[in-house]
Write a structure and sequence with these properties.
Jelly Rolls, 4-stranded antiparallel β-sheet, 4 helices, cNMP-bd_dom_sf, globular, Cyclic nucleotide-binding domain-containing protein, alpha+beta, 184 residues, cNMP-bd_dom
Amino acid sequence: MITTAYDLLAGHPFLHGMSRQHLDRLALWGRRSSFHAGTRIFSEGGVADRFWLIRDGAVELDTEVPGRGRVVVETLGGGSVLGWSWLFPPYRWHFGATAVEPTLTVELDGKGIYRLCAEDPALGFELTAGSFRWSSSAYKPPGPAFSTCDGNSNGNGVPRRGRGPRCRPVRVSFRPPRGSSAIR
Protein backbone atom coordinates (compact mmCIF):
# COMPACT_ATOMS: atom_id res chain seq x y z
CA MET A 1 0.00 0.00 0.00
CA ILE A 2 1.36 3.41 -0.99
CA THR A 3 1.19 6.06 1.71
CA THR A 4 0.71 9.58 0.34
CA ALA A 5 1.75 12.89 1.88
CA TYR A 6 -1.93 13.50 2.68
CA ASP A 7 -2.18 10.15 4.55
CA LEU A 8 0.94 10.96 6.56
CA LEU A 9 -0.32 14.47 7.39
CA ALA A 10 -3.75 13.20 8.46
CA GLY A 11 -2.18 10.64 10.80
CA HIS A 12 0.37 12.94 12.43
CA PRO A 13 -0.33 14.09 16.04
CA PHE A 14 0.81 17.66 15.27
CA LEU A 15 -2.15 18.07 12.89
CA HIS A 16 -4.67 16.15 14.99
CA GLY A 17 -8.14 17.61 14.57
CA MET A 18 -7.30 19.68 11.47
CA SER A 19 -10.10 19.91 8.91
CA ARG A 20 -9.92 17.80 5.75
CA GLN A 21 -9.99 21.00 3.65
CA HIS A 22 -6.89 22.35 5.40
CA LEU A 23 -5.10 19.00 5.24
CA ASP A 24 -5.78 18.96 1.47
CA ARG A 25 -4.20 22.43 1.13
CA LEU A 26 -1.18 21.49 3.25
CA ALA A 27 -0.65 18.31 1.24
CA LEU A 28 -0.09 20.47 -1.87
CA TRP A 29 3.07 21.83 -0.20
CA GLY A 30 4.21 18.51 1.26
CA ARG A 31 5.91 15.43 -0.02
CA ARG A 32 6.64 12.04 1.44
CA SER A 33 10.34 11.71 2.22
CA SER A 34 12.52 9.12 3.88
CA PHE A 35 16.06 9.10 5.18
CA HIS A 36 18.49 6.21 5.63
CA ALA A 37 20.31 5.88 8.94
CA GLY A 38 23.31 8.23 8.91
CA THR A 39 21.80 10.73 6.44
CA ARG A 40 22.57 14.36 7.32
CA ILE A 41 19.24 16.18 6.90
CA PHE A 42 20.53 19.69 7.52
CA SER A 43 23.53 21.42 9.08
CA GLU A 44 23.73 24.13 11.70
CA GLY A 45 23.84 27.55 10.01
CA GLY A 46 22.34 26.36 6.71
CA VAL A 47 19.31 27.97 5.07
CA ALA A 48 16.08 26.93 6.83
CA ASP A 49 13.22 26.83 4.34
CA ARG A 50 11.29 23.67 5.24
CA PHE A 51 10.24 21.40 8.08
CA TRP A 52 9.38 17.76 8.56
CA LEU A 53 6.70 15.83 10.42
CA ILE A 54 8.32 12.58 11.54
CA ARG A 55 6.09 9.53 11.14
CA ASP A 56 8.55 6.74 12.01
CA GLY A 57 12.23 6.61 12.87
CA ALA A 58 14.60 8.81 14.85
CA VAL A 59 16.57 11.99 14.20
CA GLU A 60 19.31 13.45 16.39
CA LEU A 61 19.64 17.22 16.79
CA ASP A 62 23.20 18.35 17.33
CA THR A 63 25.30 21.45 17.74
CA GLU A 64 28.98 22.24 17.29
CA VAL A 65 30.74 22.78 20.63
CA PRO A 66 34.26 24.27 20.51
CA GLY A 67 36.77 21.66 21.56
CA ARG A 68 34.21 18.86 21.53
CA GLY A 69 32.89 18.80 17.97
CA ARG A 70 29.34 17.75 17.20
CA VAL A 71 27.26 17.11 20.36
CA VAL A 72 23.77 15.58 20.35
CA VAL A 73 21.27 17.71 22.29
CA GLU A 74 18.05 15.79 21.60
CA THR A 75 16.64 12.80 19.74
CA LEU A 76 13.26 13.15 18.01
CA GLY A 77 11.06 10.19 17.16
CA GLY A 78 7.78 9.42 15.45
CA GLY A 79 5.11 12.06 16.09
CA SER A 80 7.69 14.87 16.37
CA VAL A 81 8.19 18.03 14.33
CA LEU A 82 11.69 18.60 12.94
CA GLY A 83 12.85 22.09 12.02
CA TRP A 84 11.34 25.25 13.54
CA SER A 85 14.02 27.64 12.26
CA TRP A 86 12.17 28.29 8.98
CA LEU A 87 9.67 30.34 11.00
CA PHE A 88 12.06 32.97 12.33
CA PRO A 89 14.62 35.36 10.84
CA PRO A 90 17.42 34.91 9.95
CA TYR A 91 15.94 31.59 8.63
CA ARG A 92 19.05 29.57 9.50
CA TRP A 93 19.19 26.21 11.25
CA HIS A 94 20.12 26.61 14.91
CA PHE A 95 21.08 22.93 15.08
CA GLY A 96 22.04 20.15 12.72
CA ALA A 97 20.00 16.97 12.19
CA THR A 98 20.94 13.40 11.29
CA ALA A 99 18.68 10.37 10.88
CA VAL A 100 19.91 7.64 13.24
CA GLU A 101 17.61 4.95 11.87
CA PRO A 102 15.43 4.66 8.77
CA THR A 103 13.04 7.62 9.07
CA LEU A 104 9.76 8.33 7.26
CA THR A 105 8.57 11.96 7.17
CA VAL A 106 6.43 14.48 5.36
CA GLU A 107 8.60 17.36 4.18
CA LEU A 108 6.74 20.69 4.01
CA ASP A 109 7.88 23.78 2.10
CA GLY A 110 8.17 26.70 4.55
CA LYS A 111 7.51 29.51 2.07
CA GLY A 112 4.50 27.69 0.65
CA ILE A 113 3.05 27.16 4.13
CA TYR A 114 3.61 30.87 4.93
CA ARG A 115 1.65 31.81 1.80
CA LEU A 116 -1.16 29.40 2.68
CA CYS A 117 -1.44 30.94 6.13
CA ALA A 118 -1.48 34.48 4.70
CA GLU A 119 -4.23 33.50 2.24
CA ASP A 120 -6.26 31.49 4.75
CA PRO A 121 -6.13 32.88 8.32
CA ALA A 122 -8.24 29.96 9.59
CA LEU A 123 -5.55 27.55 8.40
CA GLY A 124 -2.90 29.74 10.04
CA PHE A 125 -4.89 29.63 13.27
CA GLU A 126 -5.16 25.82 13.13
CA LEU A 127 -1.40 25.49 12.58
CA THR A 128 -0.68 27.94 15.41
CA ALA A 129 -3.01 26.05 17.74
CA GLY A 130 -1.31 22.79 16.72
CA SER A 131 2.08 24.36 17.45
CA PHE A 132 0.99 25.39 20.94
CA ARG A 133 -0.59 21.98 21.65
CA TRP A 134 2.50 20.17 20.45
CA SER A 135 5.05 22.41 22.16
CA SER A 136 3.20 22.38 25.47
CA SER A 137 3.05 18.57 25.47
CA ALA A 138 6.66 18.19 24.29
CA TYR A 139 8.13 20.95 26.48
CA LYS A 140 10.93 19.98 28.80
CA PRO A 141 12.13 22.53 31.34
CA PRO A 142 15.46 24.06 30.37
CA GLY A 143 18.39 22.48 32.12
CA PRO A 144 21.87 21.26 31.48
CA ALA A 145 21.83 19.46 28.14
CA PHE A 146 25.49 18.52 28.26
CA SER A 147 28.71 19.58 29.93
CA THR A 148 31.88 21.15 28.64
CA CYS A 149 35.14 20.04 30.18
CA ASP A 150 38.46 21.80 29.99
CA GLY A 151 40.54 18.78 30.95
CA ASN A 152 42.80 18.65 33.97
CA SER A 153 43.34 22.37 34.24
CA ASN A 154 42.15 25.23 36.39
CA GLY A 155 40.80 27.07 33.33
CA ASN A 156 44.01 28.80 32.36
CA GLY A 157 45.90 25.74 31.13
CA VAL A 158 47.72 25.10 34.43
CA PRO A 159 47.21 21.49 35.59
CA ARG A 160 45.09 21.03 38.71
CA ARG A 161 46.49 18.74 41.38
CA GLY A 162 44.64 15.65 42.49
CA ARG A 163 41.40 16.33 40.64
CA GLY A 164 39.78 15.22 37.41
CA PRO A 165 38.57 17.49 34.63
CA ARG A 166 36.68 20.64 35.51
CA CYS A 167 33.26 20.49 33.89
CA ARG A 168 30.37 22.90 33.83
CA PRO A 169 26.85 22.45 32.46
CA VAL A 170 25.89 24.20 29.24
CA ARG A 171 22.30 25.39 28.99
CA VAL A 172 20.61 25.27 25.60
CA SER A 173 18.04 28.00 24.97
CA PHE A 174 15.29 27.70 22.36
CA ARG A 175 14.07 31.30 22.25
CA PRO A 176 12.99 32.79 18.92
CA PRO A 177 14.83 35.98 18.01
CA ARG A 178 13.17 39.38 18.37
CA GLY A 179 11.07 40.54 15.44
CA SER A 180 10.28 36.97 14.39
CA SER A 181 6.58 37.53 13.72
CA ALA A 182 6.95 38.77 10.13
CA ILE A 183 5.57 36.58 7.38
CA ARG A 184 7.94 36.34 4.46
